[in-house]
Amino acid sequence: MGEQSDTFRTRAIHIGNQIDPATGAVVPPIHLASTFRQPGAGVWGEFDYSRSGNPTRTNLQTTLASLEGQDCVGSLAFSSGMAAIHCVTMMLKTGDHVIAGCDLYGGAYRLLHKICNRSGIEVTLVDMTDPGAVDSAMTPQTKLVWGETIGNPRLSIPHLAELAKIAHRQGAIIGVDNTFGTPALLRPLEHDIDIVMHSATKYLGGHSDCLGGTLAVADQSLFDELYYIQNATGAVLDPLSCFLVARGLKTLDLRVREQSSAALQLARWLSSHPQVKAVLYPGLEDHPQHAAAAQQFDGGFGAMVTFELAGTKDQTAKACESTRLFHLAVSLGAVESLIEQPATMSHASYDAADRAKFGISDGLIRLSVGLESFDDLKRDLEQAISKALES
Ligand SMILES: Cc1ncc(COP(=O)(O)O)c(C=O)c1O
Known about the structure:
The longest helix has 20 residues, at about 250-270. By secondary structure, the chain is α/β, with parallel strands linked by helices. The protein has helices spanning about 10-15, 55-65, 80-90, 105-115, 130-135, 160-170, 180-185, 220-235, 240-250, 250-270, 290-295, 315-320, 350-355, 375-390; strands spanning about 75-80, 95-100, 120-125, 140-150, 175, 195-200, 215, 275-280, 305-310, 325-330, 340, 365-370. The strands form two sheets. It has a seven-stranded mixed β-sheet with strand order 1-7-6-5-4-2-3, with helices on both faces. A five-stranded mixed β-sheet has the order 8-9-12-11-10, covered by helices on one side. α3 (about 80-90) packs parallel to α4 (about 105-115). The chain is globular. The protein is built from 14 helices and twelve strands. The chain folds into two domains: about 10-250, Type I PLP-dependent aspartate aminotransferase-like (Major domain) (Aspartate Aminotransferase, domain 2, 3-Layer(aba) Sandwich); about 255-390, Aspartate Aminotransferase, domain 1 (Alpha-Beta Complex). It binds pyridoxal-5'-phosphate. Pyridoxal-5'-phosphate (PLP) binds next to α3.
């Protein structure tokens, strides 16, 4: 049985993974039942219907809550990362205002600008690394501030405690997407953030074989409201995916630290590459928010690396198409390395004007560094860049 005093790595393996009392199995069984026999008419046991609660989902949520740190009162598992963000936005009503980061995942941009706007919710995108700009954008209607602990795709790093102070002064809730950061390296609830979200599809699952999303909070009434919305609207994570995410969590710490270390080496190597204009990696001393990153992250700066090629849009696309080990694909955070061109792939759902305004240029390439060896990955990128720039 895991204890909260055990280390992160130990809790990831033991908490929420109790021995099955019926058989002694060291891996809890997967409960596929959609409904549960009740003790009597109108009498409710721990579980009654799988949308409202399922033992396999409870196990995963127990592990996740433990990994989000001492302040966490509970976590919820959703059918995707977008379903988790959507649940947060469903707390809003007509006339409310949202401030979101301008270095934002394309799907979150689309949800805020093309879906939430239909209910009369206003959105302002602000540079989250500039607390003064966030403060000035706050209005009496601002009910939610939404950021990313590592911005996407420019890998900007906001100072979480400063943003929390600004949001709370106005009575707004602050939530952050910590998909790139992972709870192994950063636990936003420890920095006064109200809601932490992950696309579990990425590092938590870790193997590109399931979709999922999570929320975790430090306040019981906020948890109750999010649970109410989740149960009322239904985007829960299915039991098989809960099992896959729970299995992924057992190796999260090991994977992310190893991947971060290879990412730092690749970022350093790319920085000295003559055909690379800029490298955006928070672990590099010349990253504009390196100091905030060093203060907030514990044991690594994440395994995402963005760089700008000294080439045209077509040459950038060619570089992404010419790798052998890095697969050309959206998504991230798994054992296999991925490469993509944000302007035409992960951030294609941005309006072109916003892409230009927020520095998502055609020459940007985003890498998700997997668990292959650094030497192999470097060689692969080297040949792809040369091939692209010859063309
Ligand atoms: C940072 C970030 N947040 C949220 C999401 C959405 O997650 P999902 O695809 O699981 O819905 C993604 C997906 O790529 C992401 O990269």
